[in-house]
Amino acid sequence: MKYGFEIAFVLVLAIIFVSETISAKLKGKVPALFLMTVITLIGYWTVIPMDIVEVSGLSAVKNIMMMIILIHMGTLLELEQLKREWKTVVIALAAVVGIAAIFLSIGGMLLGDKLLSLTAIAPLAGGGMAGILTSQALTNGGFTDLAVWPILLITLQGFVGMPIVAFLVRGEMRDLLAKVRRGELKHPKDVQAASDASQKTKLIDKLPALYKTPAFYFLILAILGTLNLALYVNVTSKIPYVSLMMDKSIMALVIGVVLGNLGLLDKGVMSKTMSSGILDISFYAYIMTFLTGASIATIKAMMLPLALTFVMATIAIGVFSWIVGRGVGYTGRLAMAVGYNCYLGFPFNYMITKEAARAVAGSPEEEEILFDTLLPTMLIAGFICVTIVSVLMAGVLSAMI
Known about the structure:
Layout (H helix, E strand, L loop, with lengths): L4 H21 L6 H14 L6 H5 L1 H19 L2 H6 L1 H26 L2 H5 L2 H5 L2 H13 L7 H34 L6 H4 L1 H6 L15 H21 L7 H4 L2 H15 L13 H13 L7 H6 L1 H26 L3 H8 L8 H13 L3 H35 L3
């Protein structure tokens, strides 16, 4: 069945609305992202065409919006903060080590196929790029029948990761909320106020307030996002090996980190645009486009191997993250939430953290404190697992196929 722009747009928004409403009714116990994924898949398998996001016009929005959002997220990752979050980095690396350890040792025996075990490591440790690289390596090696395996892993890992991370993050935020109400936890911005006051004025602060309108900030971000895409298409993507390590998403994040730390962009610059609604919608539309390849037939064919793989990986991530996390002083719950970012990464961890803060907080002020306190930890964990380590592992393991 085909739909015109108007119907397609309404259907996409209806799926998002129903997902968010059900999640809100359940007080965030079932993430809206998970519900939206299930509803979308059922729709794709029945009456909704695969190109509904494109027809709705939202695909054009999400293409530029994702670059803008990643630049915005980069401004939140201050270099000093990365140093402060060294524990998060260590735990994220431990989770990846756990995945590699179990699949390189007993994975082949349990799955009955060493190649399936080997090619599960990089996709499980990260996201789409690692899965694509692994699938490409299988095809180049003549294993065309197994090329769908990494794609299935990256398509389905969110189903496992989202409920687990949502449960862990909600529990951690309840503890943080108790600290907020006892006066033991303040907003991160308040904690850094004294040190910020002693620092020199940022260049962006010298711009007269008259020009700092939502349109101004959106224009700057749009220009940067467009330049980033142009740089990637015309330069970076044509450089061997570099194009595999520095895709346009990583470049956008780096731009945000660099310009934010140089004082050329405000920290959390996206909030200046007053566009959180369209941001959330573009997030969901972005995710819906990844679900078109998950057919009923392909999922059924590898049901048992997939189940065993996710059981092994989930146990390995949980155990390694918990042990290392407790060793560096994190709660076991937060440590495992960090580790399970292997299954998620951006934008999933962003949305789950946002949903959890909204569900747990008793006021907008509390929601902001909880969200801004935990988000950097989740983002850094996803950045380490999904955009860095998993791609490196995919390159190394592909050579072994």
